[in-house]
């Protein structure tokens, strides 16, 4: 009876591993990397086109739009905008019509900002200067993380794709790589990037838990198989 149980158990384990491994075919892996590349390209386009401004606004007592906070390392701080400035226009229109102001009380995805400070009207261009620190954190670092995630995923696909935990780990690496790009675009009040960032935050812990579950289950399976084989011998 022990031997029969061991044979059935071993067959079930092998069939399960083959089924999972077959899901990650070469074409599917290429499609996954291509999809990741497209998403990261879109998020990079938003990140480069619209520098992170970092302005929070509120309505003043005079019903004017006032800068309530200038977030550190944003272009607003970089070009000289200050807390308490009254925003008169954003890209040639009244600030209340700007989409990020209406939705989030933030000023993002804007080029020209006209403010009033101590009775003086000042004009600022968020893209007039190059913020090296922001470029490194929001573009170079995510790109480096993505390259690493693709390299690790390629290694796993090449050498361990028939193991049932490999596909989960590959998906985990790819979500991790995309999440940096989605996060930087999300900071610019990009709706799709915000949705994707939330999805990544929810999916990564679940995939990690699933990976750990499968990994330790395989260890237990191997241990039970070893014990059964030892008793058989």
TrEMBL record:
SUPFAM superfamilies: PDZ domain-like. Gene3D superfamilies: 2.30.42.10. The keyword Transmembrane helix applies. GO terms for molecular function: peptidase activity. It holds the Pfam family PDZ. InterPro entries: PDZ, PDZ_sf. PROSITE patterns: PDZ. It comes from the Bacteria. Residues 53-92 form the PDZ domain. The chain crosses the membrane at residues 28-48, 135-159, 165-183, 195-216. Keywords: Hydrolase, Membrane, Protease, Transmembrane, Transmembrane helix. One of its GO terms (biological process) is proteolysis. This is Periplasmic protease. The lineage of its organism: Bacteria, Bacillati, Bacillota, Bacilli, Bacillales.
């Amino acid at each position: 009876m022990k031997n029969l149980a061991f044979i059935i158990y071993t067959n079930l384990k092998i069939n399960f591993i083959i089924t999972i491994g077959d899901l990650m075919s070469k074409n599917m892996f290429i499609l996954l990397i291509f999809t990741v590349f497209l998403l990261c390209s879109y998020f990079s386009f938003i990140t480069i086109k619209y520098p992170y401004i970092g302005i929070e606004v509120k309505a003043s007592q005079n019903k004017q739009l006032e800068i309530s906070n200038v977030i550190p390392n944003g272009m607003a701080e970089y070009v000289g905008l200050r807390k308490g400035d009254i925003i008169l226009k954003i890209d040639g229109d009244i600030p209340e019509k700007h989409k990020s102001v209406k939705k989030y009380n933030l000023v993002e995805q804007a080029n020209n900002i006209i403010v009033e400070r101590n009775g003086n009207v000042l004009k600022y261009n968020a893209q007039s200067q190059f913020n090296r620190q922001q470029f490194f954190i929001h573009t170079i670092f995510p790109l480096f993380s993505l390259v690493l995630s693709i390299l690790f995923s390629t290694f796993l696909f090449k050498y361990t794709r028939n193991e049932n935990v490999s596909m989960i780990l590959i998906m985990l690496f790819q979500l991790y790589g995309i999440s940096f790009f989605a996060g930087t675009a999300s900071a610019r009040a990009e709706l799709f990037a915000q949705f994707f960032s939330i999805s990544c935050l929810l999916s990564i812990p679940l995939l990690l838990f699933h990976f750990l579950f499968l990994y330790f289950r395989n260890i237990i399976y191997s241990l039970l198989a070893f014990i059964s084989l030892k008793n058989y011998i």
